[in-house]
Q: What sequence folds into this?
């Protein structure tokens, strides 16, 4: 899949669909992701295209050139407004800066649904379809604490996304620390905690190279780090390589979030101790369905009861279960990965 604003992947309205005679078949949707190479966003696009084909919806897909490419996402929103689509599904790289462009889309009558990454503020979008990212962090934090037993000797390194601190990264980070038993400061940002067990926080850009470099930086700060939180599984794989290069791959707990098929295999092989599995195909599929309904009836989707967003679910996957937590086996994780 090509990247950038020119990356028009498809705009096909399937007249032969079962919905072809309804007003739904006249609707159109833009999907805008952070990049087009991360397997998470590839799976998200797969879910969007599957649902669009089923409903007979015209789907246009755009992506940033890399995670953090805010400018390309802004240009994609402008293109979608000009195309006159009914709505936008957006995975924002910069959750604060993008809100003015999102408001322009909403002012033009488009429904905007944030996928995976809540905007800041949350109500800048019409709705958010996402994993409960804070709860995902809590699950892996609790697993790590229960696995260690006595956490007084923990030396924690955290590998985040990027310096803009998008909400998805903040929520996972703060959830992990909370689950592990660390008192957090301002829950809207990471890095202001005072717990002496935190050795350092570095950036990974959500990829393997960044994870390796970030882990190398953490080891330079504290060679005895024994617990590593990573924003996602590519970053975890990079962190593992850095640890393996210094012979510490077997005595450091690595936890992560995503639950993609490659990540589940990393759990099986011991690279990752536990991961919180989310379901991007469902996020995008439900998002397309919601915008098609908005085009047909003018109704926007409702939040999950008791929450201010639509929760698409999360599961803890590990090959080393602990007492007191609901967990999925590796086999179950393989069956569910990114469905």
A:
């Amino acid at each position: 899949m090509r990247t950038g604003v020119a990356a028009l992947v498809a705009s096909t309205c399937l007249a032969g669909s079962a919905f072809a005679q309804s007003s739904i078949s006249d609707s159109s949707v833009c999907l805008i992701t952070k990049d087009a190479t991360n397997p998470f966003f590839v799976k998200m696009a797969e879910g969007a295209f599957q649902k669009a084909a089923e409903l007979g919806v015209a789907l246009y897909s755009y992506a940033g050139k890399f995670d953090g490419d805010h400018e390309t996402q802004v240009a994609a929103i402008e293109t979608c407004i000009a195309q006159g689509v009914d709505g936008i599904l957006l995975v924002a790289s910069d959750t604060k800066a993008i809100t003015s462009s999102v408001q322009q889309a909403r002012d033009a009558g488009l429904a905007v649904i944030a996928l995976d990454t809540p905007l800041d503020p949350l109500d800048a979008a019409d709705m958010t379809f996402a994993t409960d990212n804070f709860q995902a962090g809590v699950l892996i934090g609790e697993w790590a604490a229960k696995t260690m037993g006595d956490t007084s000797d923990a030396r924690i390194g955290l590998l985040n996304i990027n310096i803009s601190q998008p909400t998805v990264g903040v929520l996972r980070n703060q959830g992990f620390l909370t689950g592990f038993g660390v008192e957090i400061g301002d829950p809207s940002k990471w890095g202001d905690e005072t717990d002496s067990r935190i050795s350092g926080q570095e950036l990974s850009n959500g990829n393997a190279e960044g994870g390796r470099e970030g882990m190398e930086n953490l080891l330079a700060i504290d060679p005895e780090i024994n617990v590593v939180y990573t924003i996602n599984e590519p970053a975890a794989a990079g962190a593992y390589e850095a640890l393996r290069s210094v012979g510490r791959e077997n005595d450091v707990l690595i936890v992560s979030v995503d639950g993609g098929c490659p990540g589940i295999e990393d759990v099986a092989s011991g690279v990752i101790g536990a991961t919180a599995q989310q379901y991007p195909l469902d996020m995008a599929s439900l998002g397309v369905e919601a915008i098609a309904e908005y085009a047909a009836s003018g109704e926007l989707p409702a939040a999950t009861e008791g929450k201010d967003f639509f929760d698409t679910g999360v599961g803890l996957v590990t090959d080393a279960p602990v007492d007191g937590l609901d967990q999925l086996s590796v086999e179950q994780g393989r069956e569910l990965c990114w469905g």
